Protein 1
Amino acid sequence: MRLLLVEDNLRLCEYVGEALRARGFAVDAVECGSDGEAAIATTAYDAIILDLGLPDMDGLAWLTAMRKSVNQVPVLILTARDGVDDLVTGLNAGADDYLRKPFELEELVARIRAVLRRPGHVLGSQLTHGNVSLNTHTRELTVNARPVELGRRECGALELLLRRADRVVSKSAIEEAIYAFGEELASNAIEVLIHRLRRRMQQADADIQIHTLRGVGYMLAPVSENRDAVGE
Ligand code: CA
């Protein structure tokens, strides 16, 4: 399980990071919101531990923006703030749980394990649908248990589709999930990318495919269904 720890108190950050690593978690620690943003843009974390008082931004604002971009990674808030209002706002903004500082390390570990177990999130590093399986840690894709090479962006798009399998994923959600802020993007970039990804899956004999719902988005579904909805 890979965790992102966003905490500007260096001592606390090191202490918590070390303790979590000792318990078998892979932990990336950053000290400000912008580094956190950069981290989640490139890495699929299983959970985020988020301090609310960050030097460059408010943790709540960051969380709200993250949820808008359909990132549903579990988030546990750490806060030194006493008020109930902040916690309610945090939970409304999409946090899964919170801990007030100072806290006991064992309680933090227990709460992280609890959010990782919680239904509603598609958890685990292995996302599987039909004969298609993607390891979100190693970015290895297998179809029919055979490895398939995929580019970073195709991989990101497929991960999003797998996480929301059988639901429609909008073009803009895919854009936001795989392109960093400010990155140049051709108007047909997503169509081209989906076309490539669809072809790779067909070549590999996947039993699910990407359906296009014109003007709405994309959706993974078994090959036999909705053939007439398939477009390029
Ligand atoms: Ca802080």
Protein 2
Amino acid sequence: MEVLAPDAQGIARAARILREGGLVAFPTETVYGLGAHALSAEAVARVFAVKNRPRFDPVIVHVAASQEAEGLWQEVPELARRLMARFWPGPLTLVLPKRPVVPDLVTAGLPTVAVRMPAHPVALALIREAGVPIAAPSANRFGRLSPTHHEAVLEQLGDAIDAVLAAGPTPVGIESTVVSLVEDPPRVLRPGGTPIEALRELIPELRVEPPTGPSASPGTLPRHYRPATPLFLWEPGPPAGGEALERRRCGFLAFQRPWEGFAQVEVLSPRGDLVEAAARFFALLRKLDQAGLSAIVVEPVPEEGLGLAIMDRLRRASSGRARLDETHIWIVR
Ligand code: TXA
Ligand code: MG
């Protein structure tokens, strides 16, 4: 763990760690973020591991200029341009459909990505120097308070991350306002550092979800990622009758070692590493989903570390459990 001064040398060091896939806590105007290379699923998986999140929530991607957002979003509507011109850099996060370059883990399987440009000289210099967009949730452990000082980061994550840029207190102290531009009219998903009143000057018809409402945080919704192909969790034991599907028409998502007799098999992590498994999880699920299979059977992973988040996501994505014999999968009702 390196405690870095927020000067040119410290920022250069932090940028290098990020480029190489490490984790760096850095100040923004709102709270400290736990940063990772946003285009590396493995680096982002480490963020979830360190935060001890019980499930994957979508993460905000930080950029140093509005043009960089254009490389992450499929297209940039006129309203987004006006919001960026008025509020960036600043505590406003905008949600729009993502380009394929953004890993599915960053968006927790959603087709959209949240992007913001922070108004903090250290954050901006860091992103510029890294030369890549930086994915960062608040730098706290799950369920704990968001850190507004590097001392708070050290207290919570000091032994678990590669470096922190120690820049003292953050000026805004509450997280950014998250606005979805996918919906029409646009909707506030999380109130935050940019006041609704200011946003209404540009979006008079803006809808505001109460912070306790069901869509306040998409991470808490039960249907978060559900493939179109029915998905079943493998359960050991002999088939007990019921509905059966031909095994050679089904896909299998294995943890460590491939299984025989399926139309298509994908392996989460040959070395049995849950961080690697988490990094590949959404992409492999999507691959199987697009293969025209009758069903996807998934081997449960160990429920420790990121395995908890993977299993949480799998339970919500699955239509139930299935047992196997040589030729068929048997759906357990
Ligand atoms: O001020 C902030 O926003 C801080 C600093 C570090 O930038 N970051 C932060 O990140 O608060 P986090 O992960 O604690 O909160 C991200 C919020 C969550 O409410 C999440 O559900 C929402 O943004 N979010 C992220 N991606 C989304 C997406 N694709 N669609 C809808 N909501 C999204
Ligand atoms: Mg947070």
